[in-house]
Amino acid sequence: MPPDVSAVVVSHMSACEALDCVASLVRAFRDEDLAGEVVLVDCGSGAGETRALEAAGADVFLPLPENRGYSGGINAGLARARSFRILACNADVVFGPGSVRPLLEAIDDPSVGAAAPLALWDVEGRVRLPAGWAPGFLSDLAQLSAGRRPSRDEARFALHARETLRLWERGGLARHLSGAVLAVRREVFDRAGRFDERFPFEFEETEWEDRVRASGLALSFVPQSRVRHLWGSSAAASPDVAARRAESRRVYWRRRYGRLRKTILERAARRSAAPPFPRLAELRFPARPGAWLAISTNPSLLPFAGAPLDDGFALPAEIAGRLPAAPLYLRVFQASDGRPLETFVRERS
């Protein structure tokens, strides 16, 4: 008899994180009384990583000889998975108590093509990672043009902030889901196709979700399911991640927008310059009831991670240690309407 769910975990130079991910899945299956299997895929990480992952306790371990990226890892794992319900996930994810069943219940609705959990960034679970970023030519252009029209920037941010808080707090239909964890029925992959392996790093789930929505299926965000995503861990382990991300972005822009609009976005990216936000010396914010803090590596702050300021906030050390050597943008905004109140930049070297 096939299992209730097959979790396909993809690792590249992330053995330590993958061991924790597999252990958390095994606990979740046991505690939620699910017959689950774990298919662990390693994408060409080398003999040392392979030896470590062999002891992970996965039901199936699939070491690939080359790095086929997240998309190739998921596709390889799908070929070995036995269930009609799939959990596609990064290795740097830890599943919390009661995190699996709500996702499976969401995709048991035949109108839903994929479901994603609320991803938390820190151990205490105060910092929520983006629910997703809905692509589009104008929204992508706005993301690259921060500071040129401040009033429009603030209006766009407020709209996105309201939608983000709605998803974090109540969930429901979304235009895009983060690909860190996706619950999917196998027949959705049959209907919309597998992940496109021409995307070496990122954008693979974005393009795939475009196809899912085009097939008439919805995307669902499920905040009742909570996982911890060690965002930045997998990227830090790959020495060519910047080049792979840039290539994926070029492929996506060309395929979705065509050559002319792709060229416009590339020029906007080359001309982009951060607005002159005040510099912040210390990553601490006092209590401010009714306000939230947005955290982003993009000067547009689209999308953003966020935390409520009801009790004040200090950036947890485990997050600070994984941030890239790049500026960090922080914005205090009103929860009721998303209106920006203050924006700062913290320079990193």
Overview of the molecule:
By secondary structure, the chain is of the alpha/beta class. The chain has a domain at 5-120 and 175-231: Spore Coat Polysaccharide Biosynthesis Protein SpsA, Chain A (Alpha-Beta Complex). It is built from eleven helices and 15 strands. The chain is globular.
Task: Give a nutshell description of this structure.
With about 350 residues, this protein is α/β, with parallel strands linked by helices. It has helices at about 15-30, 45-55, 70-80, 100-105, 135-145, 150-170, 185-190, 205-215, 235, 240-270, 315-320; strands at about 5-10, 35-45, 60-65, 85-90, 95, 110-120, 170-175, 180-185, 220-230, 285, 290-295, 305-310, 315, 330-335, 340-345. The protein starts with a strand and ends with a strand.
Properties at a glance:
alpha/beta, five-stranded mixed beta sheet, globular, 349 residues, single chain, 11 helices, Spore Coat Polysaccharide Biosynthesis Protein SpsA, Chain A
CATH architecture descriptor name of the domain at 5-120 and 175-231 = Alpha-Beta Complex
Task: Specify Rg, calculated over alpha carbons.
Answer: 20 Å
Question: How many β-strand runs?
Answer: 15
**CATH top-level class of the domain at 5-120 and 175-231:** Alpha Beta
* Name of the CATH superfamily of the domain at 5-120 and 175-231: Spore Coat Polysaccharide Biosynthesis Protein SpsA, Chain A
Question: Could you state the order of secondary-structure elements as H and E?
Answer: EHEHEHEEHEHHEEHHEHHEEEEHEE
Any idea of the CATH topology of the domain at 5-120 and 175-231? Spore Coat Polysaccharide Biosynthesis Protein SpsA, Chain A
Beta-strand percent range: 15-25%
Q: What is the number of helices?
A: 11
- Please estimate the helix content: 25-40%
Could you report the average pLDDT, rounded to the nearest whole number? 93
Distance between the termini: 54 Å
Shape: globular
Structural class: alpha/beta
Main sheet, how many strands, which sense, barrel? Answer: 5 strands, mixed
Q: Residue ranges: pLDDT <50 for 5 or more in a row? A: none
